[in-house]
Amino acid sequence: MKLRKMMTLGLAATLTLSLVACGNKETVESKNPEASAPTQTQAADPAPEKGSGNFVVGICQLAPHPALDAATQGFKDALNELLPGQVDIQEQNAAGDSPTCATIINGFVSDEVDLIMANATAPLQAAASATDTIPVLGTSITEYGVALGISNFSGTVGSNISGTSDLAPLDQQAQMIKEWYPDATDVGLIYCSAEPNSQYQVDNVQKYLEDMGYTCEQYPFSDTNDMASVVQNAVSNSDVLYVPTDNTAANNTGIINNICQGVIPVFAGEEGICGGCGVATLSISYYDIGYKTGEMAVDILANGADISAMPIEYAPQYVKKYNPVTCEALGLSTPEGYEAITQE
After folding, report:
1. Distance between alpha carbon 339 and the CA centroid of its chain, in Å?
2. What residues contact 287, with CB distance under 8 A and at least 6 apart?
């Protein structure tokens, strides 16, 4: 009995010492908060909490040029006007490099953003590969069926992807060439072979032009390294050139203009390219389609709209525009119904 009692007293003493030690440790930590505070390298800005009324939206833009810049601005303006103070916009630009688009998009997915806006085809394709759960809205996409490899595209993707298109009617673009140059015979179609939407446009424009009696030849370039030589070859064998809404061409209108200015007319699929090297275009407002994309984003984020049921939206109107500088260099008179492109 004495032995058991002594063992019991010893155990009690041990527990008492343990409690005192724990109490002393807590006292030290409370008096020296730096001992338990995270270092600067560990600290990070907290992301807005889901359900707190804040939304995180990631924007991936393929490259900096006027058309894509305008679409991004329209998108941001719509979010800020319709959800003021409620959206944290994370904007990144891939500087024309498609692999960088995948890096940017994967970062958004890792951060679990609430929505991704993909500005141009390469970011859209990267987003489609990276996530099937986060809503993805594209803009400045010519044809979603082509961009996403969807056969017999009906106008609605039917997954976590929707958005807006920058496609102006291709038959009307072909008719525009006929309006300016009814007596021409050979039309050269120049575009970047790495952009599937450019291939789609030139294939269809060629059909319309050939129905009008023109002879057409496609002149694809792979990148800026062979762009000048391809354009020069097209100039030597054509009466008129056509450039679709091609991102590589849009980023390098100076190359085209240096070869074509005062020598041969270039008709373009969008205003930015036309302003850099063209004669005329059937133009849409990239700001407007960007804003429309922002409205779609608000409907998804704030109203719970089902993106899988959202059809692709198109520009509400098209405007015929001409480049006064290029027309003057070629000595051209402008047909009625065209607006001048303002040179900045």
Report:
1. 27
2. 70, 71, 73, 74
Q: Tokens for 290, please give them.
A: 């960007």
Q: How does pLDDT run along the chain (344 residues), one tens digit per residue?
A: 433 334 343 434 443 333 333 344 333 333 333 333 333 333 334 444 444 459 999 999 999 988 999 999 999 999 999 999 999 999 999 999 999 999 999 999 999 999 999 999 999 999 999 999 999 999 999 999 999 999 999 999 999 999 999 999 999 999 999 999 999 999 999 999 999 999 999 999 999 999 999 999 999 999 999 999 999 999 999 999 999 999 899 999 999 999 999 999 999 999 999 999 999 999 899 999 999 999 999 999 999 999 999 999 999 889 999 999 999 999 999 999 999 998 66
Report DSSP letters for 18-71, one per residue: HHHHHHHHHHHHHH-GGGTSPPTTT--PPPPPTTTT-EEEEEEES--SHHHHHH
CB 68 within 8 A of CB 286: yes
Which whole-number Å values give the CA distances from 305 to 163, 270, 293, 308, in the listed order? Answer: 13, 31, 13, 9
**End-to-end C-alpha distance for the chain, whole angstroms:** 102
In angstroms, the CA 149 to CA 142 distance is: 13
Given the DSSP bridges, would you call strands 319-322 and 280-283 parallel, antiparallel or unpaired? antiparallel
- What gap in Å lies between CA 108 and CA 94, rounded to an integer? 14
